[in-house]
Design a protein that fits this description.
Collagenase (Catalytic Domain), 3-stranded antiparallel β-sheet, 8 strands, Glutathione S-transferase Yfyf (Class Pi), Chain A, domain 2, alpha+beta, globular, 5-stranded mixed β-sheet
Amino acid sequence: MNNNQTPDFNVGDIEKTIAELTERGLTQANIASAGKDWSSVVESLDQIEHELGQKMSVNSHLNSVVFSEEFNTEYEKTLPLISRYYSELGANRALYHAFQRLQDTPLNEQQSHIVKDSILGFEHSGVGLEGTASERFKAIQEELSLLSNQFSKNVLQSTNEWKKTVTIEELDGYSETELAKVRTEDGYCLSLQIPVYMDVMTYANSTSLREEIYRAYISRASDVGTTSKDFDNQQVMNDILRLRSELAQLLGFENYSELSIESKMVGSAEEVVGFLDELVIRSKDQATSELKELKSFAGHELSPWDLTHYSEKLKQQKFGYKRSDLTPYFPEESVLQGLFSTIEKLYGICVSQVSETTYHDDVKVLELADDNGPIGRIYLDSYARENKRGGAWMSDYQGLYQDNLPVAFVVCNLNAPTGDKPALFEFDEIVTLFHEFGHALHHVLTKVPYPCAAGINGVPWDGVELPSQYMEFYCYEKGVIESISSHWQTGETLPEDLYKKIVASKNFQSGLQMLRQCEFSLWDIHTHMVSDDTNTVLAKVREKTSLMPIIDENRFLNAFSHIFAGGYAAGYFSYKWAEVLAADAYDFVQQNGGIGSEASKKFRECILEVGGSLDFMQQYQKFRGERPQLEGLLKASGIST
């Protein structure tokens, strides 16, 4: 691979990059005045986006995965520069008119779609605003970028602050696998890192210990709980919501949900609410039965810190296995090799690891290639650790551009190696890994030569999750399970009886899970439609979706990074909508030959390769032959229709 495929893992100097672009004449003003055709307008902007995007991507990535106060201080200095640059870009009327003129020039189908989307983007970026309204719009965007970073920083620091030293007696219920994760030189230490937290909630027989860590986790970055009140995100959330509302109204929208929805496949916020309400209605009876069954099994009323624990025990009773029975069969090396072979069969490409020094020893550098040579790289950062943001995500370093191949970052917080044991993955963690690789493949497999619409760029937000959720389905195929499993001591693949139990338990408590996701999505769309206190909005939504009360200290929203520090504001419903697409797509491929079939290749050609360069729903229908149906999701989720 060319050297320009390797990210420079140092803090990117945004100011210097902008100055260098200016010296070369690559300015918004020059492009707007000289731009007469596709090459002089769009390709010039793509050049700027490519060079500036590399610096921004590395800065954001490092701040998330190797956080330090020193780096964050430098990173925060770049945020106003970036926000100002893009605010000025979006408000540049001369550039807007240049794009309008492009509509009357010779364009192919992809170019026409990109120009149309770009014009809408300008309109959403305040190009029609003047005077004080324009200045206020830019100020809001700058403030929002700083607030989002503050939100993320507060969650990370609050999470890192909590520690608890415990005895082995307090960890009754743990196997050696779970003990190894928390063993220290002085005994055992618990934290709020997600693999550790989930082990306590799942396996610890001590109700008091589960309650203590649950209360600490659910109250992170808030005014209650045991962590510092300096990290309270409530005012940050209030400010973000207020500014989003003001921004939308400056653009002529009644609320931020209306603004968000206009660039998505769905037609209106009301349509989103109707879609989610329908899912709630269709799943609530089953969810009620599932909770009743769980209470009966536990033999007493349930508290929030009981749900995961007793669900795991009930699952063990119903299906004859526990989560820790599976992990020895899924060492990291086998999982990755099986994932790579699955990708090869699906899309005819090869994935291999290459040797390269990066920002952390945990990181694996993967090269993707086809018969014609390399097509891109993925930097995989798998394990949970301190000073690394929680959750899992894919972000890009660069897209397909001239002789630059796509490069993506895949970040997870999975189990790490312990002592003489390799990293042993939970099955849920494997599903997460497949999910994020779905995103990365969407980015890397693009054949769109225009970076502004290659990979995930330009894809409507309610379509972005289709490739990732589509990949999840393959985790449950027998051939895939055989390829990703190899007992870390014996080399034995997952036994047939355990495989059948995984499949049988796939939709365990799917009604409860559906209600939970609908609750988040309904809160998100509603809280961006009204000026009411966001916690009040959640309480109203819960009247429709909740089957058991929450504790007074519950401050879940204060750590909801998808909404307040990610790209899902008034768009969290996209997960459920994309699940409809993914279930429908997977069912279609299965009915037409499965992995490696023409239908499988058609998914790559119609969805992954075209990115945001064509109408997404039209491309889906080209692949599928018809629009997706809600029943596909209900069927895949095991919810009776």
